[in-house]
Specification:
- The complex is a heterodimer of chains A (376) and B (1093).
- Chain A has 376 residues and is an alpha/beta fold.
- Chain A folds into two domains: 145 residues, Carbamoyl-phosphate synthase small subunit, N-terminal domain (Glucose Oxidase, domain 1, 3-Layer(bba) Sandwich); 217 residues, Class I glutamine amidotransferase (GATase) domain (Rossmann fold, 3-Layer(aba) Sandwich).
- Chain A is 22% helix and 31% strand.
- Chain A contains ten helices and 19 strands.
- The longest helix of chain A is centred in the N-terminal third of the chain and has 11 residues.
- Chain B is α/β, with parallel strands linked by helices.
- In chain B, α20 packs across α29, α30 crosses α35 and α31 crosses α32.
- Chain B starts with 8 loop residues before the first strand and ends in a 13-residue tail after the last helix.
- The chains are: A alpha/beta (376), B alpha/beta (1093).
- At the A-B interface, α3 and β15 of A face α9 and α16 of B.
Chain lengths: 376, 1093
Amino acid sequence: MKKIAKLALEDGTVYKGIAFGAAGEVDGEVVFNTSMTGYQEILTDPSYRGQIVTMTYPLIGNYGVNNEDIESHQPHLAGFIVRENSRVVSNFRADGPLNDYLERHGIVGLAGIDTRALVRRIRNLGAMKGVLSTEDLDDARLVAKAQNSPGLVGRDLVREVIPTESREWDESLSRWAHLEQDDQDAEQDVRPHVVALDYGMKWNIARHLRHSGCRVTILPGTASADQVLSHQPDGVFLSNGPGDPEPVTYAIEAIGRLLGKKPIFGICLGHQLFGLACGARTFKLKFGHRGANQPVLNVQTGRVEITAQNHGFAVDESSLPDELEVTHRNLNDDTIAGLRHRRLPAFSVQYHPEASAGPHDSRYLFDQFRNMMERP
Amino acid sequence: MPRRNDIRKILLIGSGPIVIGQACEFDYSGTQACKALREEGYEVVLVNSNPATIMTDPATAHRTYIEPLTWQIVEKIIERERPDALIPTLGGQTGLNLAIDLDRHGVLEKYGVQMIGANAAVIAKAEEREKFKEAMHAIGLECCASEIVTTIEQARAAVSRIGLPCVVRPSFTLGGSGSAIAYNRGEFDTLVQRGLDQSPIHEVLIEESVLGWKEYEMEVMRDLDDNVVIICAIENFDPMGVHTGDSITVAPAQTLTDKEYQLMRDASLAVIREIGVETGGSNIQFAIHPETGRMVVIEMNPRVSRSSALASKATGFPIAKIAAKLAVGYRLHELANDITRKTKACFEPTIDYVVTKIPRFAFEKFPDADDTLTTQMKSVGETMAIGRTFKESLQKALRGLEVGSFGLGCDGKDLWGTDKQPSIEEIRAKLSKPNFERIWYVRYAIKAGLSIDEIYRLSWIDPWFLDQLAEIIEMEDRLRAFGDVSEVDDATLRQAKRFGFSDRQLATLWQTTDMAIRENRKARGIVATFKSVDTCAAEFEAYTPYYYSTYEDEDEIPAKESGKRRIMILGGGPNRIGQGIEFDYCCCHASFALREMGIESVMVNSNPETVSTDYDTSDLLFFEPLTTEDVLNIFDRVQPDGVIVQFGGQTPLNLARALDMAGVPIIGTTVDTIEAAEDREKFAAMLRRVNLQQPSNGIALNMNQALDEVRKIGFPALVRPSFVLGGRAMEICYDQTQFERYVAEAFIAAQGQPVLIDRFLEDATEVDVDAISDGQDVCVMGIMEHIEEAGVHSGDSACSIPPYSLPMSVIQEIRDATHAMARHLKVVGLMNVQFAVKRDEDRMGVYVLEVNPRASRTVPFVAKATGVPVAKLAAKVMAGATLAELGIDSEPLPRHVSIKESVFPFRKFVGVDIALGPEMRSTGEVMGISERFSIAFAKSQIAAGVQLPPEQQILFVSVTDRHKEPFVDLARRLVALGFQLIATDGTANSLESAGIPVSRVKKIAEGHPNLLDYLIDDRVGLVMNTPSGKGARTDEGRIRAAAVQHGVSCITTVQAAEAAVRAMEALRNEELTVEALQDRFPETALPEPPTST
């Protein structure tokens, strides 16, 4: 007989379905992702720390998991919800089924519920705190736990996912990440040196920096400006990461000090931290942007990029200091998707040019960063 | 950038008649485009030869030309209309080829017409294999190794490099026509020869085989700023080797990681940019090696396609509409997403359900044809279903196919467990050779214990799909373990419904009725819920009421507006021969009529090609299979005040009784009346009461009864199963032996229903009548005299409005008879009557052959011929209006002659005899309009692709004995036109004795030179051959089949030959002219668009 699992939301709604992955009980912010592919990248994206992620596409696990398509050492999200988990795997690169992978990494999964109903609830009421359990199946108790769970506003989740040590990054893009099969990663004489501040960085960012010809040193996101500068970088990269940017004060402070000293490029949380460091404020979106189909208008070129996004907070346009210029906008809700400092060599995007999962339309930003470092 | 103001008037080219490879999807795309361009204030000129389309309604475009689709005719339209631009990408391959012809002949340049969306160079780059391959190479993408050849010698050299098996593809043919895989040298030579003949430029591509690879399609859109988005990815269930139109296909892609999917996306963007499609949609096909992931580009269609229609219905993103707006200068992000309203059209739809499309075939109509599925498309229609899981969507699609299946087996049609259960050898054979029943053979294979891996090795169907089928079968076994529905626990029963099991399957498992299952599950609260198709997986609120059913917790249908009437229209399901676009046309008009009356229209249909399944057509759209269960589920939820079953062909009529019994209010003519018209005895009694005659007839439930009946009726006798549309298994029998054979076949087709036997009236003229009645008044809308004699299926014969040879007295008799029957039957809505007029001694006898109190296939033709929206009026009558209120008091009598001609798929079915008979085999129709019969007929022939050759050509004539005398006069006229006649002995003797010059050729069986030699050498301009016997194996049958394969038109009835001679005579003396429908019927014209600034 299949094991039961339940999801309880803080508004009192309870969904009963089939347990998969690991047994246990977790709490987190319940969100949804609309990407039809890329569940393994989503699972291993540290930005999902503290969240229970629902996939809107109903059939998950069809192509299994492999050892290549990972964005960090292990899954970081709190729980995983799908309509149907595939019992078999069919893909020439697969190393095993999703279920075993989740079990191995202690991720609690829930399948078989009306995920669209859950998504509509989140869309209408906003992202909610929830508890996912295979242990306690008492509805009232689960709802109470959901209501009493910490949520993620005001919490510094970054500390939970940043690496403990610095490291040099050598891996470039996978051969499955680009059409050009000729290897251009051969050693080059001069390469800009990037220090990447890791707040929970997706590995594909580092791979892209490496692919675009940079030497990459990864420092924990807690590093101070002096620590960064001691590596004598040509540029500083601010990574993505989980949760609310405002409590990550040490990063905001460090970025403030680095501004103007080195070219800066930020992605996602890195973009929000850049905004905060320049004096802007951030706010929490109702249910965030999570998916691989988000259209972003490049204000300068007038062209649209289809982007991967994963964020619950955004930079508040009304708080924008004069020094920051909006370079990109999300076409769905007109929120800020990209910023540039008017005087200093620094820019950032709310979305994920490294894709993984998602389209490759915005890769040019890595070249833009490289060019900025070469001609500061 | 907003719309372009430098263009004002735009020409759109439709795709012509429905043929295999080009169906309703181009009516859908063309209609959307017309609406989109009108919305933007452009004047739209449309040309299409197909009268059964919504796009050729006078209210769709400003200037509508129902004219043959040749560059010469379109030049005349351009000369008259002087459009500024032409969009070539919305009318299928026909539209694209025609645009290229116009360009090549300098017409566009001469009149300053700009091609927008894609220009001639782009089209050539995408369509010409060698150019395409070069382009792919330039952007680093792989194609299959291939070589282009123009002779058999070159071909042999090429295959020695490429290897066997290989694909042989003729260039520039429709729907991949002529494409096939050669496994050995013998097959290779045959295919190359045929391909060279079929290619309009005598060119064939020899290509590396990627048989068994995974097949994918990407639907891509681009705007003038080079923004490119993917609308949908489609994964084929059937791997490479089966034409995508013949494959079961699934959206979205199921077995690709994000990395692999994004590579395919990158490749798609690179392809559309390199080919240079400026704006609009394209379809790109890829093959992926299942074990290495190697990706090759197969082809690209630089236009909207059958797949783009599917993608539009699968995602809710209206590709053709957006393509039209991009063509006139808009950028994707300047256009709104209709469904969410708040977001833009510049995004990539994401879906939270699974879509399955299954093609529908008509091999039963072509028993001599090879039913192996290849790279040449053979299916005639398709159904699509939406479910939250693949299992659910597959099983829904299988029942939506309307072939007697109600899911994946255990449904009464299943062979497993019956005495027809296939052997393991048959199963293996059916798995390894693609065929239209393969999905059921996968079931049998699993049932027989073959492992998934073995099934994969035989079929190359992806193991993920195979395991999904295995899961369905495991559920079936689980259910079977319960003895009865009452023993099943709620969770398991709900799970079964979530796997897509129909009530019929469950009833079959537990030997009870569908209704018993339905009541049982409803009592437990296991009921269908309805979800929206919203392009965005619920991320944004949807405003478009486009729904599908599934078994989930939450239902999304808003509450019914109080005080508003709601009427549900049941559509026609997948296209098939005998039931296609004509019925969809009627359903759309029903919806338009209801909306005009302020009534909410609810459309139910399962055919993704159609206008009826456009979310714009009705107030609510349900994309659902047309079964009693699925319709009742919708009924329970939306509570319509009435249901229309008259307009969707046989499909909804087959449900009418069960729906009526379940308490569904069917409006218009009652179910009792509809059935009474089919019931021979009631029908005969009715005719007696209104004093009308019919051919003597009988009804039989078994062979003995049939033999008794035919003794009374006499020969020739017409045999047919009841309750079957399109003359399925209908035959004329001249003797006892033939009779016994065909009656046996009819019983099989009848599936338990009786077989009908009629005296066949030889040499009679058939007449079709469409009429509307409101229960009181009756109005005849059109009287059509058939060109071919009675005995040729009405759907296959040409016909004329008005009648061209019948005396006024007979027409009046027909009119009176129609009125009498409509009154007697208390028809409310449409009625179609088929009459036969036969000269008995010195008077003309009028016989009633058939009465159908419902929309007929001819309704759109009548509407186009008369300028009266017949279907719309009928729907209004059904909704309660009277003819008097609608201002309809007299029969429309047009001043011009309209000819409908049928179009056949014979070129797709090599070796099939094309002689016409009572079984319908045409897929589509065209219309020719003129002041005179001869010119109207000539136009209809040109439009249907019948080549009326210029003088000085050789004509082959061979007629059966009873036609020899009437043919003499025709032969004399042909000679006078300058033709040289050749004939076999019998016909030659009769012509010579009448003093007509003729050369002789041998019959095929007699040796050489025979007609085949003339055909192969391209020396014959036209074949006139009236059959004395039928069949692909007879000498004459081979002649007719050979003519078709060599692209020589073949006229098979003496009446059509007579009309063709009249047409050729007329063409000698006058130029064809063109006229817009709006000029013929000024009252139907749209208001002029405001002059742009």
